Amino acid sequence: MEKKTQSSQRLVLFPCPYQGHINPMLQLGTFLHSKGFSITVVHTHFNSPNPSNHPEFTFFPIPDDLTADEISSGKIMAILLALNANCKASFEQTLTEVMEKEPQNKITCIIHDDIMYFSEAVARHLNIPSIMLRTTSVTNFLARSAVLQLHSEDHLPFPDSLSLNPVPQFHPLRFKDLPTSNLDTFENYSKLAVNAGNVRTASAIIWNTVDCLEQSSLAQIQQQCQVPIFSIGPLHKIAPAASSSLLEEDTSCIAWLEKQSHKSVIYVSLGSVASIGEKELSEMAWGLANSNQPFLWVIRPGSICGLDWNETLPQGFIEAVGERGCIVKWAPQREVLAHGAVGGFWSHCGWNSTLESLSEGVPMICTPSFGDQKVHARYISQVWRVGVQLENKLERGEIERAVRTLMVDDDGEGMRVANHLGLPSIILSTSSAANMLTYQEIPRLLKDGYIP
Ligand code: UDP
Known about the structure:
alpha/beta, seven-stranded parallel sheet, six-stranded parallel sheet, 13 strands, UDP-Glycosyltransferase superfamily protein, glycosyltransferase, transferase, quercetin 7-O-glucosyltransferase activity, quercetin 3-O-glucosyltransferase activity
């Protein structure tokens, strides 16, 4: 449904339909809206964002032609490749209709997720400038190129004996930290990585990252890239937007947090895609129970392979933890991490979760599952030194020790202090000072017609 707007400069956003991509794209939209642009979000029916959370935007759903079988397969790369093939015509048709209906409300630019690379071709065909948004870390982007290179040289898949060996030129990444994925075939992985990695006609790249975290990776990418790169993260701080959650947030956990002591709670969430088995669920449960720390645990529906929601929490667990544990299906994560009662985050290390935790000075326990999560876990524990990684199979004794290291021991306090004195203040000061230049620059460049 189209909304009347006073603004004459319209930006069209095309997010990739997964939570970790929708959030930064809509945060960017919120920021640009606050600078006077009108924002139109074109999106797939699959994982459609809720327009009522963003009444200031205009939303256009387009058919994506995904079959129920494709969606339930969980093969994310195949789904993303299908979306790139299926959405081109309907996106172009939607844009043409929008332009015909409101010729005075010119489309200044299309901003698309790098994974939705078909948007760039549509923009070029309609003669509209386009900009790419990249929603993972620069370091992960570089490591993904290393994966493609190693594969082309027949070094991947690597034998177990190499798993702890350093990847040449990629200190401190080991082979096991490379951003590979077991969610789909390597063929699909590489097709997607190559297409999303190429800048064809985009005028610029907006990157949700922070200079002080990724200085050397940014310097490297800037050398390789022909177009300007704006590192403007963390987007959730620049535009503390309304929620863009696909699942309903259970805000009752905030009332529970209110009753807990300062920095006593470990918050546990493995994000919007990662899943675990029944055995891992049981080890997590007993590790948390035995740690004796209060915990807030997100168990996302569908995240336990083959089971309904927490139907198989081990017998006796709920009774053992009583009021000390709070379990929800989906949490208002940014609010949770900013709450004074939260003292640690056990995370899968998705890029948004990593930035959200770093921004609040919350140290992390890292259990990456696939892709970029493995790179971030290594950086959190070895480079930024604000977390510990659980390296082995999930096991209750190790979990209990990690929780206590983070929440009780001096080590954890050290990380929290380092985090408080170091990273978050750097992140926040770069957001409010140095990065101001870059992120304030974008609307100016768009308005003044610098792009393209
Ligand atoms: N998130 C949330 N509530 C939850 C769990 C996650 O709002 O209970 C949000 C979180 O704040 C983050 C996003 O979902 O912005 C997850 O993105 P991330 O890149 O961390 O991981 P992904 O889900 O893409 O693996």
